[in-house]
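USER:
I would value a second opinion on how I read folds in token form. Give me a protein, with the fold worked out from its sequence. Write it directly below this note and I will take it from there.

ASSISTANT:
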Amino acid sequence: MDSRNIKLTQSAVDAAKTAEKRYALHDTVIVGFRLYVLPSGRKTYHYRYRVGGGRGATIREPKIGDAKSMKAEKARAIARDWQAEVAKGGDPGGERQAKRQAPRMTDLFDRFLADHARPHKKASSVRNDERLISSRLQDALGRRKVEEVTRADIDGLHKALASLPYEANRCLALLSKAFNLAEVWGWRADGTNPCRHVRKYAEKKRKRFLSPAELSRLGEVLRTAEHDGCLTFPARNQAFPGSRTVPIIPSAVTAVRLLILSGARKSEILGLHWDWIDFDGRRINLPDSKTGEKSIPLNAPALEVLANTPRVDGNPHVIVGRKPGAALVNLKDPWGAIRAAAGLEDVRIHDLRHSFAAVGAGGGASLPIIGALLGHTQPSTTQRYAHLADDPLRAASDAIGAKISAAMDERENSITVVPLSGERDGRTS
């Protein structure tokens, strides 16, 4: 490769002619600053310097820019800055290379799933993380460098999902954890999580409980499905247009009964094994659940359902599927038919759990007791049933008030007043 020494002015760069081989023009002012001229006519600025000393020294020659889009004086200024960095022990070329090779968000998502989600989270949570990444986060952030994502980026993504507040908040929570891990892994500086101070949307908790009349209709439909093995819909039914008979597998009916009678989660009932049921102790002992190892008390109606459920040889599951040895995995379709027949189109499977708790609260059960029955780990989760726990108190207050009002209206003592403990001797408690 030929080379020449010349001050790299703009006129010198413009005047440089192509040759059969690549050659270099070395600047006479800044040692290491040079222009390469290629046979194709392309011209590029570079800065050559040494990192380290002795036999372990490394020669770097990072590109400054292309002469077609960068003036000579601009390239000279950059070369001078790099020269100053090298003099202080810096490595501008290495830093640029590291920046080019810096992990992107798609790398962070992959490592988040591999090193955090899959080893430490429940399978259902992992599936939801995978869904959020593929459907919401990958396209929006995947190509970005992890260290370059800003709070404005996260805030913009969050606001783009404003119409789906629950989904937006789940994305924010996932990203916050991922960026915390990025700091641990050295992919971002400590304390730079861009999710900080991005406010979550208020989430309105769904409060759908079955009324006594709705429970009655549900029971009637379950008995029909159990007896006939199917549900028949008239042509006017919007859920199943036209005359249609929908088969209902018996285990689906059993699952719905156990869900409403136990308050258990769908996954806990569909995955239930016979070995986990303690009939003498009247409880289900789950080796694992969303909240870890868990015990679910069984009331008499739930025990009766289980007692009347036939066991299938070779299948450990209570709620059996159509495949030999397998559990029922699709309750969505049978439940769709059951709720349509019962006129409960807006009721989700999870609302059966809510209804179990609502009946308990309305019957006077305390919130801590309801939380324990449902397996809640946080008291705040049970708080949604607080207003229902007031019903027995309200009923008692109404009854007392009615008697007092009647006595006052009739202007006679028609009620009996029983002194509370301590009142007979003038003391109050």
